[in-house]
Amino acid sequence: MKISLLGGTGDIAEGLVLRWTKAGHDIYIGSRSEEKATGIADGYNKRLFELGIESDIQGGVNADAAAASEVIVISLPYEYAVSTLEQIKSSLEDQIVISPVVPMSRVGKVFMYTTPAQGSAAQEIKEALPESVRLVSAYHNLPASELKEIDRVLDYDVVLCGDDDGAKEVVKNLTEEMENLRALDAGPLEASMMIEAITPLIVNLNVRYKPQHFSVKFV
Ligand SMILES: NC(=O)c1ccc[n+]([C@@H]2O[C@H](COP(=O)([O-])OP(=O)(O)OC[C@H]3O[C@@H](n4cnc5c(N)ncnc54)[C@H](OP(=O)(O)O)[C@@H]3O)[C@@H](O)[C@H]2O)c1
User: Which residue from 29, 32, 74, 215 has the fewest beta carbons nearer than 10 Å?
Assistant: First the structure.
């Protein structure tokens, strides 16, 4: 499957890029800068080659990345997600778009969820996308630092939600190709706020219990 990551040069993208390449997918890293994207793609190709994994990760500007793939991950900070999607709108048609985006801010000593007017980042992002795009909200609670260690088995649950069952099935399969991750369907996109809001809680626990990196598992 062809998968592009907008802001694919960043933290959460790294593990997704490496793990999905290892699983055999074609990956395209998007960025504001073509040079930055190709440089990071080359670095990941080199790293995978040294691990004996064949790869041909591509890099380019976000609009080209979006146009190149069937699945797009919005691996961008909340502050720039909607503005970036608006800039590349002509590259969006009927792809499956995955949002791991979490709006949060520091209030005193703790991080808090910052509720967007629409109810969640996913619902706000949905408004910025063409109707024909199928949005799935997922990966908010995965720690980037552990995801990027590609041989590390992640015994976590990934809660996802969205309004299109076919798109959720694709994201479920992509998730479970990453060893030991279990995808759980939490229902429609309206449920996204509950998943997104767990992330600042996890970040606060990570600060308090350093160097532990918590995630989510339902038992
Ligand atoms: N980090 C985590 O552990 C984690 C876990 C779960 C979910 N998330 C969510 O995943 C999303 C990405 O998080 P991250 O930690 O990967 O972010 P990040 O590394 O801070 O940033 C990702 C990319 O965003 C692009 N970017 C930065 N400023 C921008 C701007 N002004 N306009 C457009 N693009 C800009 C940059 O790409 P270029 O400079 O190449 O354009 C950057 O590499 C966030 O919404 C976060 O809430 C993160």
Answer: 32
